[in-house]
Amino acid sequence: MKHLNHHFDFVVIGAGFAGLCAAITAARAGINTVLVQDRPVLGGNASKEVRVPPVGADNCNFLYSRETGLIEEIMLRNLHDNTDFSYEGFDIVLNSFVKAEPNLSCFFNTSVFEVNFDASTSQLKSVTGYMAGSELWHTFIAPLFADCTGDGTIGALTGAPFRIGIEAKSDFNESMCEEHEQSYCMGGSVQFHTIDTGSPRTFIKPSWIKLDLNDEDYGSSRPVCKDFFLNNGGYWWIELGGDLDTIHATEEIKEGTKEIVYATWDYLKNKSPLKEKLQNYELDWVAPIAGKRESRRLEGDYILSMGDIESQKHFPDAVAFGGWGFDHHPPGGFYDKEHGSYHVYHAGPYNIPLRCLYSSFTNNLFMAGRNISATHYGLSSTRVMFTTAQLGEAVGMAAALCIREKRMPRGLLEDVLMVKLQQHLFRNDHHIHNWPVTIPNDVARLAKVSASSEFLSPDVKTSYKTESLDEDKMLLFPVITEQLESIDLHVDVADNTNLKLELFQGPENRSTFPEDQIWSGEVAVVKGKSQWVNIAVASDISRPGWHFLVIKSNKKIALHVGKASVGTGNYFIRPVDPIRPDPSTKWHTGKAALYSDGDFHSDTYCFQLHPSQPVYRPENIINQWSRPTNKPNMWASETTEFTEPEWLELSWDKPRSLGQIDIIFDSMLDFHFMQKWGGYKHTVLPSIVKHYRLWAFDQQGNKTLIEEIEYNYQRLRKHKCKLKKVLRIRLEILSTNVLHRAHVYAFRAFE
Fold first, then answer.
1. What is the mean pLDDT of residues 216-234?
2. Residues 12 and 147 in one domain
3. How far is residue 635's CA from residue 744's CA, in Å, rounded to a whole number?
4. For residue 562, which of 616, 632, 491 has the smallest C-alpha distance?
5. Exposure string over 503-542, b if 16+ CB within 10 A, otherwise e
6. If you placed Cys at 365, which of 261, 359, 715, 748 could pair as Cys (CB 3.0 to 4.6 Å)?
7. What is the pTM of this model?
């Protein structure tokens, strides 16, 4: 046996999305960081050994709320590099990010179970772990630590207070809580996968699997046959352990859940209505461990509650955002036939404060992941992986600032340091909901903006299919003028009838969901195909931004459908779902998807607005938003084949010295990523600018090429430079990755 000591600035324990993003962010910010992982792989529940699909805010009707920053960079890289769309490929991508950082070390198969805690200062001095298979004991010594274990293991070892189970209603006045606290948690799930072998295969259930499942054991909330071909297996509801100790009974939970997996495959293969279709299928993978949902929640200086999320409470120390609903699972899991899981959506995305991301007891301990400071129902929303990635990035940046400023985590609450932390996050395209982006030394805000052209309106005039109006539909579009006079809809009408409509404005919270009705009416339409119907709404616009036209059901009418421009989209009524009972789930967004032509795009109903809405102006690139909020907030060029470059230009009234230029392109924030997917025609999102050049112009008009990028697939691009006496800089766009327009959200220039 050997015992080795290691000194670092920052020790991150746990390498799920939270720990991974914390470690990479801190290392990139220049501090010596180590990532300690008890498994042989990276990614936690999204890893190749667990394979839970990651989700986040954009899954819950909040268009353009996809998590950006580091996790966006990772997922765009996975889309590009992982051409087999495999879990093995995703693992390679995650390892590539870790190995690319010179300030980051990684220790796999190392379980931390011992801490050196100084009670006199309430500080953690070191942690010690055993590396399985190597007979090595590693002690990691540092001024700062992050508990990203999911189980809150490090905090618990220091004696830090934590919560487990569900609070009583009186504790935080949470409407879903019972009168008395409950000791149970949400359980864990074991994923499985099958393959079509091309020839008949048999499955004999092992004799040690005593469980026998039949049709009646699943029911409407567990559509075992209906959902099988979505992933060739793998059901989130194969879940157990909420009524057990989800930490110390981990093995028992795993074994019990695997029994359900094998019994389910026996049912599908040998008894179910699908058995004929599954003749050639075989079980090729079962997860070796369960994906956990909940265990300890370490207490910070603030405990995020259901009420904070529902009210979208403003936090001065906001450092990340969430948007997944309150997603509660019953303690009995698969065997609970009376209390199904339920998922209550919010009115809009919400922010998470730094005070939830460090221990109230252990002064130098951060936490990120599902063990942050939250109530059970707060956690039921923040626990999903794209949200935990945001928490990790915030913690990594906070740790770097602590090292530079010689502060403990709580010390960052000082106004000046908190603003500095938020600015560092914004600089890396990290998002905080409804929070204007301000970054020091960005002189682009002082520049005059000009462009080669401008896409004049969000109108969608070209259709590629029709869709029956057999139920209510809804159209999203932006309005920035003081009045909206009328809307044209492109329809087919089978017989003379009346078209009924309602117009809503969006909420002040910048969510993409209808709030206040401002008009209703009906229009007589006559029989005929491919006709534009004018709807006179004559409405004053009191709240510029998102507006929603509800088109009431009429089976005599079909709506023409086209490819959406940014800021437009279609919604349909979600089928009745006992898991999602609240009003915020009534409408479901038509997110960007992969269509039969192998291309990515969003759909919308064909429409024209009067007056025209100039929402893609060049000056949008220097406003305080780098994504759609209540309007698109981007520059879009006119439609082009790029026979001549499109361009954006910043010009100043006096010479500038520039050290860096950052650009944020359009990466289709209405598209949802997964770590494994298939069938894409492209490995790059089509809206991202592919080939571009940056030029600088001095007082004499001399032109200098700053940099040319011939192949880009990322949203955020940073360009270091040493420019003196610059009067103008130009972004020249020669091509995108498919789209016949150039899209840019931000063009920043730093002195």
1. 87
2. yes
3. 5
4. 491
5. bbbbbebbbbbbbeebbeeeeebeeeeeeebebebebeee
6. 359
7. 0.96
